[in-house]
Structure prediction request, 527 residues.
Amino acid sequence: MTTPPDTKAAGPADDKLDAGVLKIAGVVVLGAIMSILDVTVVTVAIPTFQHDFDTTTAVAAWSMTGYTLALATVIPLTGWAADRFGTKRLYMMALVFFVLGSILCSTAWNIESLIAFRVIQGLGGGMLMPLGMTIMTHAAGPQRIGRVMAVLGVPMLLGPIMGPILGGWLIDSFSWHWIFLINVPIGAIALALAFIVFPRDNPEPSQSFDLLGMLLASPGLAAFLYGVSSIPGEGTVKSAKVLIPAIAGVILLVAFVFHALRTEHPLIDLRLFQNKSLRFAVLTMTFFAMAFFGSGLLLPTYLQQVRGESTLMAGLLIAPQGLGAMLTMPVAGRLVDKIGPGKIVLTGISVMAVAMAFLTQVDAHTSYGMLCAVLFVMGLGMGCTMMPTMTAAIQTLTQAQVARGSTLMNIVNQTAGSIGTATISVVLTSLLNRGVTLSDKGAAVPPGAPDPTLANAAIGSRYSDQLAHLPQALLNEGFDLASKAFAHTFIVPVCLLVITVIPAFFLPRSKPAAPVETGAPAAVPMH
Prediction:
């Protein structure tokens, strides 16, 4: 485990975030911004990869899938590796892998090489978030963790919003290579600052490496996430491409659970669930991540397919959500340190649920002003939910448990997000496919136009030239039916948020106390 050279418990005199802690937080955020933005930026580039490398959408999508599977493989190893090698060294190594992978991705000569280089990038990116959480927790101590988590929450909440804006601008103004090359200067700066700012590593003799646990957990999680992520493309859960890897992954993960409970030092310490605060934080994060990441694909898709907006414009219209989150995250962080996360998280979830309930009423003509106002209110709730929940999981752990706890929460976040995205994508596709085709109404399909089912007819301006001669009333009906499909799909994340209230009710509602142990989290005085 890593212990800073000079530590002391956080007390009233040093309750504020000093310059040293803020410097550490700044470096961690810099690394987190790269890894989180990279996911959404590359999503925008999929059609460009398809065109430039002359490949199919399914193959081009492996540039995303390969990265996700690399994340899933490396995250379970992070807790053990942090204890064995030290968080500073491991964080710097992760940055090197990420930057090296970015450089290699920019040199890709075909889709196969790009996918391979994305895997290298993912091996580094998967470690950055759990390591960043561990480093910041050690630096701030349990009395101030709410505030430093609020800082770390900025890239987590803004990444999905800013990614499409940045990606669209880089591809339109320069080329797809720059969505990777932009990571090089940022990564180099983060690497230099990590060397200067992070406290010196003093790793103690580590527990033995759980090889069997690694052989069960890493491929199990990767196989399960691959199966789940294949659901949208297959359009059904019953596909062999979905069922075989998902079931295999579940079998491996169940085997890991039995192994972990019988092993003294497992790769992922499931005994952490004996901690009541962490247990309910994990349940809260599971349902919240399913709702948040799942709903994250709905509004951009609605704006592009129903309203005919560009990727860049869709990103700008969603930006008020990030603004709202930025306003409440610092306040929520301070309140969590004073009164505990319970009341804050309950308030945030309630605000989000009420705002998202409005989106179940959107149609093809909903005012953009109204949408932006609703998204701003949703953002206010988001800022009070995600990072306070993370804080609830980490703040009662001892210093020896922080690395493993951070790893566990990141696994939950990644898995729940994938499940939520796949579930909502399938619901949306099902509702769109139930619509009436334009051809059923007796409309002639223009030569070269796509088969104008409801799903295709709702692709706004993309096919406006080919469909221009169709009766406007007929087109309006298609767009109205499509918007209803999006509106009805929003019911799913609303229900998930309502369910989230149940475990959130049991989160701590009092100021956290430092764990009674010699190795309790300690504040790091930096000068």
